[in-house]
Task: inverse folding
């Protein structure tokens, strides 16, 4: 495909020009051929399957003050909560009963959940549900901590890098955070043996086509097992509260590009997509996505995990509506899969589903 010329090298300028062309000048026929190619690559490795993960957002406390985030440390309007270990285990049990075999435990960087607390939690989940995969998304930790959590039974780790450009990173984060450390965490996680997830925001403040190209080059270098991208959506209690109206067009194009450049990745159709456009989940699947994460968080907490404004916390993205979600996926000729849904290379290598030594 001539539209993809420039995406297989490391020339940032050529890649940037191609992204700009696809986003601004490509015909509908070119976009359709391009997204179809992305889906064909996905199907080569996973078939037309959509893998399910049960999402548990267990704390919205965060020690960081990222400029774009609704649960940032200095947002005095955020209604804070922490789930107890018992509540988290009950949420896992609920998910297990309806068929989920992957749990995603996500939080802000909450120091209350010390390494010991997280290790105990991971160990108990793996003991109760040994055939399930545990995904953690709790931020930047030391390599030793990551290793001990892995030994306790964690299988995967999500840590979106948000942008691969250092100057851009500094525009979105306070000075105590660095892209260098973020990237080091991702490489540490891979070396330890996790299935690793990275990702970035599309249309974030100050983002350029050159920066989007840098994100693709970084992802191809890192070769993560999972890649999460979504449109930037402002939050009213941040400095970017009035930053434009979010759209999904560029995000859909970037989803296909990510699939083409890292064809074996597990890529979600994110909640952020559907927050912007009610039909965007299907558009994400048609662009090459193959993961969905229904919410298992107890209802009384969901509305307070607000990374951005108007985040969906009920309806089709909620676990209570699983049957409707399954049917909606079948209606677009895709196959719901509630198994562990491991990365294809990890399946080939053979992975342990038992908890490791604590």
Result:
């Amino acid at each position: 495909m001539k539209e993809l010329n420039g995406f297989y090298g490391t020339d940032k300028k050529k890649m940037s020009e191609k992204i700009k062309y696809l986003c601004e000048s490509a015909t509908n026929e070119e976009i359709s051929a391009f997204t179809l190619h992305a889906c064909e690559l996905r199907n080569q490795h996973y078939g037309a399957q959509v893998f399910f993960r049960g999402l548990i957002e267990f704390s919205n406390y965060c020690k960081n003050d990222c400029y774009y985030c609704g649960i940032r440390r200095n947002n005095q309007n955020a209604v804070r909560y922490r789930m107890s270990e018992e509540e988290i285990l009950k949420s896992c049990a609920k998910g297990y009963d309806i068929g989920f075999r992957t749990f995603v435990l996500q939080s802000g960087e909450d120091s209350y959940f010390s390494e010991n607390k997280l290790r105990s939690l991971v160990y108990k989940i793996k003991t109760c549900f040994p055939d399930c995969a545990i995904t953690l998304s709790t931020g930047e930790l030391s390599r030793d901590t990551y290793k001990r959590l892995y030994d306790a039974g964690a299988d995967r780790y999500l840590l979106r890098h948000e942008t691969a450009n250092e100057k851009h990173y500094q525009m979105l984060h306070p000075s105590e955070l660095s892209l260098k450390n973020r990237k080091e965490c991702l490489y540490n996680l891979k070396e330890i043996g996790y299935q690793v997830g990275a990702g970035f925001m599309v249309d974030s403040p100050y983002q350029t086509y050159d920066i989007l190209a840098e994100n693709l080059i970084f992802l191809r270098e890192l070769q993560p097992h999972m890649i999460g991208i979504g449109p930037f959506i402002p939050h009213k209690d941040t400095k970017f509260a009035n930053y434009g109206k979010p759209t999904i067009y560029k995000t859909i194009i970037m989803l296909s590009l990510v699939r083409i450049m890292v064809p074996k990745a597990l890529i979600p159709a994110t909640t952020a997509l559907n927050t912007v456009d009610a039909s965007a989940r299907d558009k994400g699947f048609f662009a090459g996505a193959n993961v969905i994460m229904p919410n298992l968080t107890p209802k009384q907490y969901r509305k307070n995990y607000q990374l951005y404004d108007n985040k969906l916390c009920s309806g089709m993205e909620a676990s209570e509506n699983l049957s409707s979600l399954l049917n909606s996926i079948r209606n677009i000729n895709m196959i719901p899969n509630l198994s562990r849904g491991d990365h294809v290379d990890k399946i080939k290598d053979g992975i342990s589903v038992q908890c490791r030594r604590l």
Notes: The domain at 2-345 is CATH 3.20.20.70 (TIM Barrel). The chain has a mean pLDDT of 93. The longest strand covers residues 195-202. The first helix runs from residue 12 to 24.
